[in-house]
């Protein structure tokens, strides 16, 4: 609860023009934004667009839009950030399509090392290479499993685990009751677990 209270205080202060509070929001949420971007890209876009670039663009959009953000409840900030991630990905994907670079037809070269792959190798807690490689393998396995979930299951996992939405808010987003959202989430996690173990 202290975490969300700190965010609420920082959002209110940032809306009033406090640059330090805005800087604190950006620092606090950069890691989460990067995870959201990486998970929402999907398998084809992930090898074409850079999730770190998307994350930086989202931070810029937060800075430029914080004064227009309307705080409604504890989940509204993360929901807003999640929408910014989605919109940024959509905008960058549209740019790729407009440039007649149809990524759907491009063969994905999985041997190409992206910035994210290098980053995952560098940020392992234990500096031993085997643990770094295990971390990278786990992240890639999770991404592949998420990619193989149907869109409804994937969305509910992202809303709950990456946007930290409570089931009441998820229910509103999915037009169902909170208990139904909870059950959908449990079933989605079961399917994700099955895919992870395959």
Describe the structure.
Helix 6 crosses helix 9. The chain folds into three domains: 1-107, RNA polymerase sigma factor, region 2, helix turn helix motif (Rna Polymerase Sigma Factor, Chain: A, Orthogonal Bundle), CATH 1.10.1740.10; 113-142, no CATH class; 149-198, Arc Repressor Mutant, subunit A (Orthogonal Bundle), CATH 1.10.10. It is mainly alpha-helical and 198 residues long. The longest helix has 28 residues, at 19-46. The relative contact order is 0.10. The chain is built from nine helices and no strands. It is globular and about 50 Å long.
Instruction: Compute the number of helices.
Output: 9
In terms of per-residue confidence, which ranges show pLDDT below 50 for 5 or more consecutive residues?
A: 107-112, 119-130
Helix content: over 70%
CATH architecture of the largest domain: Orthogonal Bundle
Give the CA-based shape.
globular
CATH superfamily of the largest domain: RNA polymerase sigma factor, region 2, helix turn helix motif
- The CATH C-level class name of the largest domain: Mainly Alpha
User: What is the rounded Rg?
Assistant: 18 Å
């Amino acid at each position: 609860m202290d975490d969300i209270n700190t965010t609420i205080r920082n959002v209110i202060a940032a809306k009033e023009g406090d640059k330090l509070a805005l800087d604190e929001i950006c620092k606090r949420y950069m890691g989460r934004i990067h995870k959201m971007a990486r998970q929402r890209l999907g398998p084809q876009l992930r090898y074409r667009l850079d999730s770190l670039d998307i994350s930086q663009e989202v931070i810029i959009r937060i800075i430029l839009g914080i004064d227009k953000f309307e705080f409604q409840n504890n989940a509204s900030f993360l929901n807003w950030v999640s929408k910014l991630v989605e919109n940024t990905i959509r905008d960058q994907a549209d740019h790729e399509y407009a440039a007649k670079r149809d990524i759907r037809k491009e063969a994905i070269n999985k041997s190409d090392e992206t910035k994210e792959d290098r980053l995952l190798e560098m940020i392992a807690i234990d500096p031993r290479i085997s643990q770094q490689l295990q971390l990278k393998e786990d992240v890639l396995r999770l991404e592949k499993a998420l990619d193989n979930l149907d869109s409804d299951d994937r969305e509910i996992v992202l809303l709950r685990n990456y946007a930290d939405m409570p089931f009441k808010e998820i229910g509103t987003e999915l037009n169902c009751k909170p208990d139904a959202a909870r059950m959908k989430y449990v079933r989605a996690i079961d399917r994700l677990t099955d895919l992870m173990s395959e």
